[in-house]
Design goal:
Elements: E1 2-7, E2 10-15, H1 25-39, E3 46-51, H2 62-65, H3 70-89, E4 94-98, E5 101-103, H4 107-111, E6 115-118, E7 123-125, H5 137-146, H6 149-158, E8 162-163, H7 164-169, E9 175-176, H8 181-193, H9 197-219, H10 231-238
Helix pairs in contact: 1-3, 3-5, 3-9, 5-9
């Protein structure tokens, strides 16, 4: 992740882990650290998240994940919970600019954001069921909070990706732009940055507070093993 400040008061967080911004425990804990740091900076008034790659984020690296032992599984579940909880709870406005696939865990950068911008070539999906795993509590509660019941059912239970126009229809994203999504995200960030920050943080907490607290309480419990008897074979099948 690269952190820059393209305009006064605007922080830009660019994902840049080739080839597909795959998620690891270390990267997710890095996300938490950055989200916490920006949350505490008074001069930061809005945050833009984008990708330097053609893929926004493909979630886990399945080649590695199919070989996870119990400790690896616990570490990635903890990372997914901690990282996206911190982003979802960030009191600053978060705007995402998506110009590629945001799949599985990668979609939670989008769902955690307050305004979501995409290009026509972007795609979105929650493929967990197809790779033989359920959802850690953090991502699950974020999805439940930010998707309507129909979109939640279609994305989570079917596990198939959708295109940008369908994602906008289902409320997964807010707008589609033909030009640079980052340029548009920076414009939106400037608009959000003009909102009184204390009021914004309070209103965002009113909207998301119950879900934030529910995730925080659930994370204190020791999770069950993430993989089941189907998982490794399902992951291997997805790689064919």
């Amino acid at each position: 992740m690269t952190l820059t400040h393209p305009h006064p008061g605007i922080a830009r967080l660019t994902l840049n882990a080739a080839p597909v911004n795959a998620l690891t425990p270390a990267k997710l804990m890095g996300l938490k650290a950055v989200a916490d740091r920006l949350s505490g900076r008074e001069r930061v008034r809005a945050i833009v998240i984008d990708s330097a790659l053609r893929v926004f984020s493909a979630g886990l690296n399945l080649k590695d994940a199919q070989h996870y032992d119990d400790a690896d599984q616990a570490a990635i579940v903890h990372g997914l919970n901690i990282g996206f909880h911190a982003l979802f709870a960030c009191p600053k406005p978060v705007i995402v600019a998506c110009d590629g696939a945001a799949i599985a865990g990668g979609l939670f950068f989008v769902l955690s954001a307050d305004w979501r911008i995409a290009t026509p070539r972007a795609s979105f999906g929650l493929a967990e069921v197809r790779v033989g795993v359920d959802f850690p509590v953090g991502p699950m509660e974020i999805a439940r909070d930010t998707l309507d019941p129909t979109a939640l059912r279609r994305l989570i239970q079917r596990g198939q990706p959708i295109d940008a126009s369908t994602a906008q229809e289902w409320g997964v994203i807010d707008e589609i732009v033909e030009a640079s999504p980052v340029d548009r995200a920076l414009e939106v960030a400037v608009e959000y940055a003009a909102i009184p920050p204390l009021a914004y943080a309070q209103v965002k907490r009113q909207v998301r507070g119950a879900t934030i607290e529910r995730i925080a309480k659930a994370m204190d419990r020791t999770p069950d093993p993430w993989f089941n008897v189907e998982t490794r074979a399902a992951m291997a099948q997805m790689l064919r």
